[in-house]
Amino acid sequence: MNISSTTCKQQAIKARQGSIEVLRIISALFILLFHIDQSPYKNISHSGLICFIIISIVFQSKSANKTSARDYYSKRITRISNPWLFWFTAYLIINISTQKPLFPQSHGIVNNILTGPWIGLWFFPFILITSITIFPIIRSLSKTNSAIRIAFYSASTLLLLTLYSTLKATTQTPWPQWLRALPSIPLALITYELTQFKKQKTIPTASLTAFTALSCTLLAPSLTTTYTIATSATAIAFSLEKFKSAKIYQISSLCLGVYVTHSIYIKALNKVVPSASSNFAAVFAFSAILSFLGAYILSKTKLRLLIT
């Protein structure tokens, strides 16, 4: 490793918050657990994906308030579209080589593109469109009072929860996934507002958790567990005292790689060892080890920017 790359790595570690990186790792494991068919913890483990979205939007909000529109859009589009296009192509090749349908959840060309040849790829166009959309919202509200912004984001959360409850059973992939994830966007923007509080953070964090739990219970009961865990976990992680760890960052930087590859290991394990399907804990443990190991190996190749 040359001096330049070492400096970049040190700067990346310096810019990270240890508690957030720990939460990223836990969230990646939760997502893996969610995609194990026999897992009995679907609602709990789905909070991992919501945590990822909230964390991503909080950092994007910070960027939106500090950079120009040109720099913001250029960075976000490149950062998201490159891995999306690569893994879209990779899963097409995998499906062809294994003689599976190109788009297993085929519901028309638009849905196919937004879902991808592996259903987990829906996340990339979702977060890309979200990133593009939130910038003008954040900028247009930047001169208003924080309380007004929080009120606006809270109302948006209620609207999106209602939308989810109304439309979830009438749409095809990837729209149920999008509808399920959309309320996390305004909740993430509220979380960002809370990160700007300099002193008292316990009451705001508890208030956000209570608001999420009550709103979901009243408007979208099936999301209550998932969202309450996710919003409370991220709010707490952002409120903790900052600490930095190169080892934690090294592991957390593999989480995107774990996300885009874990289904390969789960399916391979179930196929090679059919009896393993009856023991979700074993499938989870081996898949987690293989996913992180595989992501680590890829991180040492030219594919590093597509999985970190």
TrEMBL record:
Lineage: Bacteria, Pseudomonadati, Verrucomicrobiota, Opitutia, Puniceicoccales
Protein's name in the database: Acyltransferase family protein
Domain spans labelled Acyltransferase: 19-299
Family: Belongs to the acyltransferase 3 family.
Transmembrane segments: 21-37, 43-59, 80-98, 118-138, 150-166, 248-268, 280-298
UniProt keyword list: Acyltransferase, Cell membrane, Membrane, Transferase, Transmembrane, Transmembrane helix
Pfam families on file: Acyl_transf_3
Membrane topology reported for the UniProt record: Multi-pass membrane protein
GO biological process entries: enterobacterial common antigen biosynthetic process
